[in-house]
Amino acid sequence: MNVGTRDTRTADTAREPTSSGSLVEVAYQRLRAQILDNTLPPGFRALEQELADRLGISRTPVREALIRLQKEGLVEVIPRHGMKVLPVSPSDMRDIYELLSALEGAAAEIVARRAPGEEALAPLAQATRDMAKALKNDDLEAWAEADERFHRGLVELSGNRLLIEAVLNLWDRAHRARMSTLRLRAKPLNSTKEHVSLLERLRAGDARGALEANRAHRERASRELLEILERHQLKQL
């Protein structure tokens, strides 16, 4: 699945499945997408019935979907009062990037040790080319989509299911903050160059180099994001 493409269909543009399990998944995916793209911004509150009406389905699958979203740290379920979309604070982002650095570094090391061929690395190479093209066209949204695609592809190449799930959960929690500050930062030329460097180390089977390249990339990105939050006095996103 392309990380940059999220299902934001509303109730009037999608058919409602008949099974309760499918309805829970529909409610989960739609609410999650609306939270991640800030359609439901931090601090947004709603009753279960309001959300059910919004999605065109019953309250029960909405309630189960909210429980899943609460486990992911995206919402707080408030008994008898529905839910609240949780913000991401600078402290949250610092913690998230520390974990991403460690987990993605482990993924990069695993992949490099396998000395993957060009076919396996083709999606990462394409994402890197797309990043460069997007910057040339001053299309930051396309750049961000290609950047997310690169990182997802890297982690998925590790083949470690638990590692993949952990990273993607963290990545989604960071998504709102990254997109909200996308136009507040300098043009991400360094990030694109760092992806190229990491890709070279993966090609060479340099496990240590891949680990260090990814760590340096994440640490720099974390510093830049936290500086933006502090400079603009953004307490939460």
**Assigned CATH superfamily of the largest domain:** GntR ligand-binding domain-like
Which CATH architecture of the largest domain?
Answer: Up-down Bundle
How many DSSP helices? 9
CA-based gyration radius: 19 Å
Describe the structure.
This protein has helices at 20-36, 48-55, 59-71, 90-113, 118-136, 140-157, 161-180, 189-204, 207-231, and strands spanning 45-46, 75-78, 82-85. The chain has 237 residues and is mostly helical. It has two domains: 11-85, Arc Repressor Mutant, subunit A; 90-231, Four Helix Bundle (Hemerythrin (Met), subunit A), CATH 1.20.120. A hairpin with a 3-residue loop joins strand 2 (75-78) and strand 3. The two termini are 25 Å apart.
Question: How are the elements arranged and paired?
Answer:
Blueprint: H1 20-36, E1 45-46, H2 48-55, H3 59-71, E2 75-78, E3 82-85, H4 90-113, H5 118-136, H6 140-157, H7 161-180, H8 189-204, H9 207-231
Antiparallel strand pairs: 1-3, 2-3
